[in-house]
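Quick one: C-alpha cells for this chain, please?
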Amino acid sequence: MEYFGVITTEADPSTHMPKNPGQVNGGMLTRGGVNMAPVITISVKSVDESIKKIEAAGGMIVKAPYEIGGMGIAAYFKDTEGNVMGLWQDLMKK
C-alpha cells in the first residue's frame, strides 16, 4: 500500500497531531478496494469498541482492522446510507 502523509499545518513532534485546534493533517493512498473516493477518517480511542457500536447501529465493516507501520490501527465501515468512512486508533504515545 502506498501512503503519503499530507501536512497542512505544524504538528507536535511526539504525537504528530496538529498543534493548533481546528487544523488538520492527513494522508493519501492509491485508489482501490474500499478507497475509491475520498474517505473521512475518524480518530477513536478503540477501533474494536467503535466497530461494536457501528454494527449495533446497522453499519457494516468493509475492511477489518489492520496496523499501519506501528503508528496506528485503521478500519473502514459503511454506514446505513452506504457511505464508506474510516476509523483510526493512534498507537503512538501521547
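The longest strand covers residues 60-68.
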